[in-house]
Amino acid sequence: MEAPITYKLNMGQSASIAYYPVINLFTNKVLAKAEESIAPIANGCRRYIIEYELESPRSVEEYTYELLNLGVLWRTYGGMALSVRTAPFRLMAFLAGVRKKNEFIKALVDPIRGFLMSLFLARENAERLTEPPENLQEFERFVQWLEATGDFREDAFRFIRWLAYFNTLNPTQFNETMKKVLNFSAWFEKESLNSLGSYTQNVEGFLKTRMRYYRWREDRFVCLRTRVEYHLNMTGAEIMNRAFQPEFLSAHKKTVLVPGCMRLRSARKCEGIKTPNGILCTGCEPRCSVNRLRIMGHTNNFYVCILPHSTDLSRWAAKPDAPSHAVVGVACLSVLVQGGWELRRWNIPAQCVLLNECGCRKHWDNIGFPTELDVRELKKILQTDSPDLRILTERQKVILKN
Ligand code: SF4
Question: How far apart are CA 185 and CA 353, in angstroms?
Fold first, then answer.
């Protein structure tokens, strides 16, 4: 069996047995631990958001996850962000937004973004941080840096609300709050390595050997994610699925949005029909996984659409007087949570399913191979399949015991 590029959920067994029961229990553990540490902070921010009507309030678990995300990203990228003295932040954030809105200029904009990112935003030897920001200005610079990368745009949108909330705290309160967040993130990093590390064993080797390859590329932050970010996104996908499920299930129409890398044929040979919303499979290759999903959709009442990477998801937002439309986003671990947040921002009821591993030619592999998802997990999410698959093996129980 060939080693995965970075992560793999179905080592030796299907992901519905090898991975999904584990992430379910691990997420319970994270949320239980958060109760005694950062959940009260998340609650405080939620109350602030309600009072000032900054957005429709979301669940405490979602805000708790945002805090965990904040802590992990600060520890990972805070040093890099603060070491940037000057950069065209606005121009870079603008370019990231433009390429999302217009697919046809991606090819033109991406090399420019890659060059600017490497020149201004990336620092290969930047230190990881264990201390909180000294003040709100440092935190603000960090958020600006995240937005400029384009790949942390959704994170930055959320942190702008946190910035507003932190502004209501005095410097000592802000410092104590951030210390709690960083302590929790450090706990998460250690625990997630124990519980989820078996799925991400190749991440560090990949980072070591491929760092130079991505140096001037626009996908450098997407592809060079650290191991803890993989675990963070696994947990985030689970929390989001729980939070969005009721709305998703009550929608009239459901579409599974799959990435182009799931196709058996190359983009050039695929005979799918291009539409403004994505590519519709025509079944030109019976063995293609997308075609199989399309056929499954006929009997299970869902549609399938192929989305190119970084598509603007606002086109899936509800139209006035149209029946509610929910989507299942399918993607690899590097981008799944950001996609989920974007769908949430557009009020699109969504669920997500992970690709079992990454493998597209554009970002990950010189040759590329068709990627896959766990069909049982998809059916469970769509509630077309009822058996309880959350049965743990003895080894999984041992890993999660503490
Ligand atoms: S079966 Fe569908 S998705 Fe697969 S290559 Fe053909 S048209 Fe494209």
Answer: 24
Q: Please, which pLDDT band fits residue 393 given cuts at 50, 70 and 90?
A: low
| Interatomic CA distance for residues 314 and 57, integer angstroms | 20
Band of pLDDT at residue 171, cut at 50, 70 and 90: very high
- pLDDT for the residue numbered 391: 45
Q: Please tell me which residue, 208 or 212, carries the higher pLDDT value.
A: 208
Which atom of ligand 1 lies nearest, measured to the CA of 289? 4
Question: Is the distance from the beta carbon of residue 288 to the nearest atom of ligand 1 less than 6 Å?
Answer: yes
pLDDT band at 116 (very low <50, low <70, confident <90, very high): confident
Q: Distance between CA 339 and CA 288 in Å, rounded?
A: 24
Q: How far is the CA of 283 from the centre of ligand 1 (A)?
A: 5
- pLDDT of amino acid 35: 94
Task: Kindly state if the Cβ of 215 falls inside 6 Å of ligand 1.
Answer: no
Mean pLDDT of 288-304: 95
Assign residue 7 a region (left: φ > 0; alpha: ψ between -120 and 50; beta: otherwise): beta
Query: Which of 256, 257, 261, 263, when mutated, tests ligand 1's pocket best, judged by the most ligand atoms within 8 Å of its CB?
Result: 263
Of 1-10, 42-51, 159-168, 282-291, the range with the lowest mean pLDDT is 1-10
Higher pLDDT among residues 156 and 117, named by residue: 156
Q: Which helix (H) or strand (E) holds 184?
A: helix 171-196
Say how many C-beta atoms besides its own lie within 10 A of residue 306's C-beta: 24
Q: What is the pLDDT of residue 39?
A: 96
| Residue with CA at minimum distance from ligand 1 atom 6 | 284
* CA–CA separation, 113 and 119 (whole Å): 10
Q: For residue 272, what are its two tokens?
A: 């799918």
Crossing angle of the two packed helices 39-51 and 60-83, in degrees rounded to 10: 100
Residue 301, ligand 1, Cβ within 6 A: no
Output the DSSP codes for 187-255. HHHHHHHHHHGGG-TTHHHHHHHHTGGGTT-TTHHHHT--HHHHHHHHHHHHHHHHHHHHHHHH-SEEE
Query: Tokens 């989820």, residue?
Result: 196
Atom of ligand 1 nearest to the CA of 284: 6
DSSP, res 402 = -
Average pLDDT, the chain: 88
- The verdict on the CB of residue 370 being under 6 Å from ligand 1 is no
